[in-house]
Amino acid sequence: MSAWRLVEEGSAPPQPRTERTRTGGRRMLVVAAVVLLTLVGAGGLAAARTGMFAERPDGCARPDRTIQLYAVELPKDGTQVRLGYGLTPQTASYPGPLMEMTEGECLAITLHNQVPEATLAALRTSPTHPLGVSLHVHGVKYTQDSDGTVQSGSYVPSGGSRTYTWYAQPRNNRTGTPGTAGYWWYHDHVVGGPHGTQGLSSGLFGGLVVRRAGDPKPDRTYTVAFGDRQSINLRRGEATDTCTEVNPQPGPTCLVARKGERVEFVVVGIGNDMHTFHLHGHSWADTRTGVVSNGQPFADQVPIIDNKTLGPGDSFGAQVTAGDSVGPGHWMLHCHMQFHSDAGMSTMLHVLDENGNMPPGMDHEHGAAGAAPAAAAADAGAHQHD
Ligand SMILES: [Cu+2]
Q1: What are 353-359's contacts with CB under 8 Å, separation 24+?
Q2: How much distance in Å is there from the Cα of 344 to the middle of ligand 1?
Q3: Sign of CA dihedral 60, 65, 71, 74
C-alpha cells in the first residue's frame, strides 16, 4: 500500500469513528473482491482493468454517448512510422477524428489498440517501457483511470480495449467552476516513452471542441496541428495540400470551403517548437469561440487577430467566414516564423465560390493540386496577398 498521506499542520487527529468506518469500508471491499472472484473469476478483474467499471468524474453519472475508437498502423511516410486514430480501422488518420462535446455531456470512448506489438517495440526508447497505446485528453474532466498514462496503468496493450470517460463539466457561477467549453485536443501518452512522444510524432493526436448551447455552429471544422520539422499535420510543403481541382475531398491535407461558409479551425501545437498560426485574407476574434457573440457590441476589448502564437500543448479555435469580402481564392495558411514557412510549413485554404467552383484564372498561381510540390511551396511563399 502507498505511504502517501497528507497531514495538515495543526489539524485534529483522525476521529476513532472515522477510523472504524474506514476499516469497515476496507473489509467490505475485501468481501466484495472475494465475491467477485468467486462469481466471475479473474475475467471480472480483467474487465475492470479495461475500464468496464472505470471511475467517472463527479457529475458524470453515466455516459450520455459511446464512441468506438481504433488505433492502427498506417502506411509509412518514407521511413517514418505512421499511426492514426479512427472511428473505424479503415478511416484512421492523422490528425484523428474531431471529437465534439457539449458542456454537461459525459462521453465514453472505447479505444481498441490494433497497432502490432512489434511496431510499438520498435518505437520504444527503453526495453523496460510497457508496450501499449493510450488516450489522454486536454481540457475536459477525467479520473486517473482515464488519464492514459503508464503510471496510472490506463493504457491498452496490442489487441486490447479500454474505455476512457470524458466529462465536459459545465460552468457553475455559484461555485466559480469555469466549465470546459473551448478548443482542446487528445493524444497518446504511452507510445515510445512515458510522455507518448513517439506516439505524437507518429500521428496519434486529434482535436476536441466543447460547445455551450448557443455557440455558433460551423459548416466545416479542420484540425490543424503545427509541429516539429516545420510540419502541418506532420507534413511539409506540397504534402500538406493534396486537394484536387475536381471534386476536392475535405480532410487533413485538403482545406477547402465555399464562400460564405463558417469555417472553424482547431489549432494545436505539438512537439518542441513555438509557432504562429496565420491565415491570409481572414481574421477572427480572440475569444473562446473564435467569434464575437451575436448581438454583442463590437467592443475594443475583444482583440480581432489574423496571427496567433502557439506553444507546445497549446490549442485554440478560430472561426472565419470563408471569402468574406475577399472572395474565392487560394488563401495561404502558414506558420509566420519565417524559417518555418520557408521550409514548407505552409498550406492553403481553398475558398470556392457559392456554387463550389474556383473562378477561372485563379488556379495556376499556387500549384494548388500539388503538381509542382516543393517548388510550389517555395513559390507560394513569394506571393503577396496583403
Ligand atoms: Cu512554426
Answers
A1: 353/258, 353/259, 353/323, 353/328, 354/258, 354/259, 354/260, 355/258, 356/258, 358/245, 358/328, 359/327, 359/328
A2: 10
A3: negative
**Residue 163 confidence (pLDDT) above 80:** yes
Distance 233 CA to ligand 1 centre (A): 12
pLDDT in tens, 46-61: 444 444 445 799 999 9
Find the 226 Cα to ligand 1 centroid distance in Å.
7
Going from the Cα of 377 to the center of ligand 1, the distance in angstroms, rounded, reads: 15
Q: Report CA(270)–ligand 1 centroid distance (Å).
A: 11
Residues 6 or more apart whose CB falls under 8 angstroms from that of 116 comprise 73, 158
- d(CA 3, CA 22) in angstroms, rounded, equals 16
**How close is the Cα of 75 to the center of ligand 1, in Å?**
26
Q: Which residue has 513569394 as its cell numbers?
A: 382
User: Could you report the per-residue pLDDT of 69-108, keeping only the tens digit for each?
Assistant: 999 999 999 999 999 999 999 999 999 999 999 999 999 9
Q: How far is the CA of 250 from the centre of ligand 1 (A)?
A: 23
pTM: 0.83
Handedness of CA 68, 73, 74, 80 (dihedral sign): positive
List the grid coordinates of 218.
460551423
| CA 268–ligand 1 middle distance (angstroms) | 12
Taking the centre of ligand 1 as the mean of its atom positions, its distance from the CA of residue 92, in whole angstroms, is: 26
In whole angstroms, give the CA distance from residue 89 to residue 114.
8
